[in-house]
């Protein structure tokens, strides 16, 4: 049995904590805020889980495994937080051909979708869609609450909210002036991880707009899929409403690099820019219910996620590359494998 310290009670930290506790290890979860923390980057109504990654066979296979692990977590936590509505990705004929080839090689299902099948959504000219039935909408906040409830009831888990970690060394973390010994340490504090340790990352801020559809489309949206690669530059996406969530839209057009999460800018101009994107037919009929700025970190070189080993016992998920929620079970599997192998102990 190993002692595992998890810094950060977001999705990666909580999924890892669950896996380690189930394997019989002693787990301490530390977060500088509440647990779950509504200010964390994981906190949101919903997140996308895309299985099919066109032109990336290995990535598609990995996300198919992540999808299976999310289903296992639903069963374990006895909470429905995966909406299996699928995800549609817009593409040109050549792009769709490559997407179907990726699906074939990764052995995942995919079907063609004509724009006429999704009339409330504006497809870019010259594109149609590929439907990924394994894709889903993850009810993020519902999962976070269920995960914390399960961990709080587990005798091998200690939750320490309001506990700021100020330093990390091999086999130990410094939290509120106390040194906590651990066989394995995972730093998963979102963008704040870079303040403790890890390779260089770039911090991004992205504006989201939450909408209420017009009443005559409520029934249609209840079973609609997520849709990506739409908008003027084909960098916009949407997540459908359902199970108490709103319709959410965003785009890379309103994503910008920032130096810190604390230096907030005025979201108004960014929200107006997003609402001007050609995403929804009859957009003027939708009611803006709210806006939110989310943050994520990406590798300074590749723009993707980072899972770095800083010491023999210390791992840092210092960047998610914008897809950290859906891939969290894969990171947890990696960390648990190291714990079980006693490689870090």
UniProtKB/TrEMBL annotation:
It comes from the Bacteria. Pfam families: DAO (PF01266). One of its GO terms (molecular function) is flavin adenine dinucleotide binding. Its cofactor is FAD. This is Glycine/D-amino acid oxidase. Residues 4-335 form the FAD dependent oxidoreductase domain. It comes from Amycolatopsis tolypomycina. Keywords: FAD, Flavoprotein, Oxidoreductase.
């Amino acid at each position: 049995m190993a002692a595992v310290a998890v810094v950060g009670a977001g999705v990666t930290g909580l999924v890892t904590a669950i896996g380690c506790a189930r394997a019989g290890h002693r787990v301490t979860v530390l977060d500088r805020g509440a647990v779950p923390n509504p200010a964390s980057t994981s906190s949101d109504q919903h997140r996308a889980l895309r299985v099919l990654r066109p032109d990336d066979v290995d990535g598609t296979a990995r996300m198919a495994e992540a999808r299976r692990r999310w289903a296992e977590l639903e069963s374990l936590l006895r909470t429905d937080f995966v909406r299996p509505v699928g995800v549609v990705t817009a593409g040109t004929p050549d792009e769709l051909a490559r997407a179907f080839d990726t699906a074939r090689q990764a052995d995942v299902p995919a079907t063609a979708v004509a724009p006429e099948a999704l009339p409330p959504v504006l497809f870019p000219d010259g594109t149609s869609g590929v439907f990924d039935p394994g894709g889903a909408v993850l009810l993020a906040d519902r999962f976070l609450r269920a995960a914390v409830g399960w961990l709080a009831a587990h005798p091998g888990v200690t939750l320490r909210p309001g506990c700021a970690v100020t330093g990390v060394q091999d086999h130990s973390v410094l939290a509120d002036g106390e040194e906590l010994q651990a066989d394995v340490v995972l730093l998963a504090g979102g963008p704040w991880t870079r303040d403790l340790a890890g390779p260089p990352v770039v911090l991004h801020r992205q504006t989201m707009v939450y909408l209420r559809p017009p009443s005559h489309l409520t029934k249609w949206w209840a079973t609609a899929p997520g849709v990506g690669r739409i908008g003027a530059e084909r960098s916009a996406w949407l997540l459908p409403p359902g199970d108490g969530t709103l319709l959410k839209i965003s785009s890379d057009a309103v994503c910008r690099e920032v130096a810190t999460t604390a230096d907030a800018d005025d979201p108004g101009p960014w929200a107006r820019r997003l609402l001007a994107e050609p995403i929804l037919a009859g957009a003027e009929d939708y009611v803006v219910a709210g806006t939110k700025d989310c943050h994520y970190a990406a590798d300074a070189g590749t723009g993707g996620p980072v899972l770095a080993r800083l010491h023999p016992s210390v791992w840092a998920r210092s960047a998610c590359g914008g897809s950290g929620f859906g891939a969290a079970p894969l990171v947890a599997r990696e960390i648990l494998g190291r714990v079980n192998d006693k490689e870090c102990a």
